[in-house]
Specification:
The structure is a single chain. The chain is of the alpha/beta class and 230 residues long. The protein has two domains: 54 residues, Hypothetical PUA domain-like, domain 1 (Ribosomal Protein L25, Chain P, Beta Barrel), CATH 2.40.240; 163 residues, Alpha/beta knot. The protein is built from six helices and twelve strands. Strands 5, 6, 7, 8, 9, 10, 11 and 12 form an eight-stranded parallel β-sheet that branches.
Length: 230
């Protein structure tokens, strides 16, 4: 049996209006998926009976980290939502020189929590086995100092670059892929040089200049298609 309380209870009972007899699929943090049927809905709890248990298969493709410069308005949340649907493993929100929105240090933790909540809800909606990790907000230079293993790609226009669709991808699962997307205002020359000094490869998505949120999702879609994830 599985007993469900808030906050998931409110979402299931009030938003989705689940009733006894409805099927319900639940995941846990250990990589198990429970196929259940709802037996009872009370004022505060849902009681569900487990019909079968399914274990997740080991990943067969390198994980992808999306390092995304902060975007204004609701665009950042939108990118988190869609990146989750596209199977991203980790999202690193970045502060770059030309980032427009600013998050004060006192609000950084709550901002990270909000993005993590968006990722959780998107993972539930898309029936993912796991939820992407949302890293704390950090400066771009700080992110570059991390020991990111595997392929490191920076999307940059007007640079000597190759198409993202043609960059050789790692074949070993442990070798991840990091793709860095800039803000609405683009990269500064100093940021480009800093990334190059950390062995980032420049890549393009074509001849046109895409909006930052479009570039993020196009990059993930291309990479996942090439990795046979999609």
């Amino acid at each position: 049996m599985v007993t469900i309380a808030d906050p998931l209870f409110s979402h299931l009972s009030k938003s989705l209006r689940t009733r006894p007899g409805d099927p319900l699929i639940l995941n846990d943090e250990r990589g198990c998926r429970y196929h259940t049927t709802i037996l009872q809905v009370t004022k505060h709890l849902i009681h569900s009976k487990i019909l079968s248990i399914q274990e997740s298969s080991p990943s067969s493709t390198p994980s992808i980290t999306l390092a995304q410069a902060l975007l204004k308005g609701e665009k950042m949340g939108w990118v988190i939502q869609k990146a989750t649907e596209l199977g991203v493993h980790t999202v690193a929100p970045l502060i770059t020189e030309r980032v427009i929105p600013r998050v004060s240090p006192t609000h950084a933790a709550s901002y990270q929590e909000r993005l993590a909540r968006i990722a959780l809800e998107a993972a539930q909606q898309s029936e993912r086995w796991n939820v992407p990790t949302i890293l704390p907000l950090q400066m771009f230079q700080e992110f570059l100092q991390r020991e990111n293993e595997g392929l490191k790609i920076m999307l940059a226009e007007r640079q000597e670059r190759v198409s993202l669709s043609k960059i050789p991808l790692p074949t070993e699962i442990q070798d991840g892929i990091t793709v860095v997307i800039g803000p609405e205002g683009g990269w500064t020359q100093e940021e480009l040089q800093a990334a190059q000094s950390r062995n980032y490869s420049f890549a393009t998505l074509g001849q046109g200049i895409l909006r930052a949120e479009t570039a993020s999702l196009a990059s993930l879609a291309i990479l996942q298609a090439r990795l046979n994830y999609l």
